[in-house]
Amino acid sequence: MSFDLAAHLGMMRREVRDLERDGQKAKAVIAARLYDTDAADLWDALTRPERIRRWFAPVSGELVLGGRYQVENNAGGTITECETNRKIALTWEFGGAVSWVNVTLTPQAGGTLLELEHIAHVSPHWDQFGPGAVGVGWDLGFMGLSRHLAEPEADVPAEAVEGWTATQEYKDFVRSSSDDWGRADIAAGEDRDAALAAAEATRSFYTGESIPADH
C-alpha cells in the first residue's frame, strides 16, 4: 500500500479551544485522524521505540507511567497517564516552557480514531504563531504515522530524509497545514486578520523563510 499525502490531508480534523490550566488562560490544539488499523497496532506504533523512530523521531527514557522520556533534539517530559490501547498523557517540556499532551485511541467503524490534544498557556509566542506553532509539527507526526502504516519498510520519517524539507511537497504540506490551523483558529473565535497573520508566520518559520525574534 503506497502513501497518498493528499488523501491523508483530507482525513485530518483540526480544532482549537479556549480553556484554563492551573488558573491561567490556555489554548487546546486538537488534531485527529481515523487510521485503518486496530487500537493494539496503533498503540504499538505510538509506544515502541523501534517503531516511533520510523515515523516520528528517536525517543529514549522510560516509556511507562511516571517515567521520563526525551525526544531527540526536541522536548522531554513525564508520562502522567498510560492506559494500554487507550490513552497516553504527558508533559511536554521544551525551551523552559511546560505544556501538556493527551493522546486517545477510540475504536470506530473502519479503524481507530487517534486524537491528540496539546494544551499550552497563552503567551507572546502563541500571539505570534497561533495554533500552528505546535499544530504543524504534530501534523508532520500524523503524516509520518500515516506513511509508516502504509509503507512499514521505510526506516525513517520523510522529514528526516536529507533534502526533503527543501522539496515542493514539503513546502505545500506546510502551507496546507498552516492554512488549516488558521481556519481552525478563526472557527474558534479568533480575529480573522490575526489568525491569518499567525498562520503565515508559522508557514514562513517552518519553511525557513523567517526566524522568530526570540531565537
Automatic annotation (TrEMBL):
Query: Residues in domain Activator of Hsp90 ATPase homologue 1/2-like C-terminal?
Result: 37-124
The UniProt entry, under InterPro entries, shows: ASHA1/2-like_C, START-like_dom_sf
Show the Pfam families listed in the entry.
Answer: AHSA1
**Family according to the record:** Belongs to the AHA1 family.
State what protein this is by name: Polyketide cyclase
Which species expresses this protein natively? Answer: Devosia elaeis
